[in-house]
Design a protein that fits this description.
The protein contains 7 helices and 8 strands; from the N terminus they run E-H-E-E-E-H-E-H-E-H-E-H-H-H-E. By secondary structure, the protein is an alpha/beta fold. Strands 3-4-2-1-5-6-7-8 form an 8-stranded mixed sheet, with helices on both faces. Helix 4 links the parallel strand 6 and strand 7. The protein starts with 8 loop residues before the first strand and ends in a 7-residue tail after the last strand.
Length: 255
């Protein structure tokens, strides 16, 4: 569908599961060379398929990010497209949120996304290449949700970084956009339903039913729903889009 992606090198953080894994599969299907960077991957840069690579990465570790980007550049080439899907969450009310929980969300979701995007942008500029930076934010980057103060703050921060980097990199031909998924069926969402339900006196099944009831399209999302938008943003069709936060929420968020 997007023939131009076959010549691109794509880095996906959090590529080992959930949305990240769906994005990895989608880009591989389009013929791209894809590096999946995930905390659960084995150490070192390893080729796992004809065009597939994996590497262990803690996105909150600045030196690790720079080391991995250097290794990818040396082995595969300059990263043309980066999708920052690595993320975490904690389910706790604001009055009970600890500094450690706050730091975890901000370090991984906000700082981690920024460190990776900054590193890719620096290398694109040095190589005088255009490129695509695609942040995975959330509809929590536009709304507030009970029991998710630190997570919501981190995802709002991602949208702020998106807009600023879009302005700064526009004349370099590097577009910067964010995807704001709604309720997507992933292992992290399942855990959130268990933990979020516990603090509300609900079962995970009750939370899941509540989730579905809030979506105008009548269903929760899949990782493929998000991955399709990532493909579009990476393609030539999106060459005149930058600084945007695109909702993929089944109509649950419309601003």
């Amino acid at each position: 569908m997007f023939d131009e992606l076959a010549s691109r090198v794509v880095l996906v953080t959090g590529g080992g599961s959930g949305i990240g894994a769906g994005v990895v599969d989608a880009f591989l299907a389009e013929g791209a060379t894809v590096v999946s960077a995930d905390l659960s991957a084995p150490e070192g840069l390893n080729q796992t398929g004809d065009r597939a690579w994996s590497v262990r990465l803690d996105v909150s570790d600045e030196s690790a990010v720079e080391h991995v980007l250097d290794a990818v550049t040396d082995a595969v080439g300059t990263v043309d497209v980066v999708v920052t899907a690595a993320g975490t969450s904690t389910m706790v009310y604001a009055t009970e949120t600890t500094s450690a929980e706050w730091d975890l969300n901000l370090d991984v979701n906000a700082k981690g996304s920024f460190l990776v995007a900054r590193g890719v942008a620096r290398r694109l500029v040095a190589a005088e290449r255009t490129g695509r930076i695609i942040f995975i934010s959330s509809q929590a980057g536009k709304n507030g949700y009970r029991g998710m103060t630190a997570y919501v703050a981190s995802k709002h921060a991602v949208l702020g970084v998106t807009k600023t980097m879009a302005v700064e990199l526009a004349q370099r031909g590097i577009t910067v956009n964010a995807i704001c998924p709604g309720i997507i069926e992933t292992p992290m969402k399942h855990r959130e339903r268990i933990e979020g339900g516990a603090i509300r006196g609900m079962t995970a099944d009750e939370v899941a039913a509540e989730d579905r009831s809030q979506v105008p399209l009548g269903r929760t999302g899949t990782t493929q729903d998000v991955a399709g938008v990532a493909l579009f943003l990476a393609s030539d069709l999106a060459s005149y889009m930058t600084g945007q936060g695109l909702n993929v929420t089944g109509g649950m968020t419309m601003h």
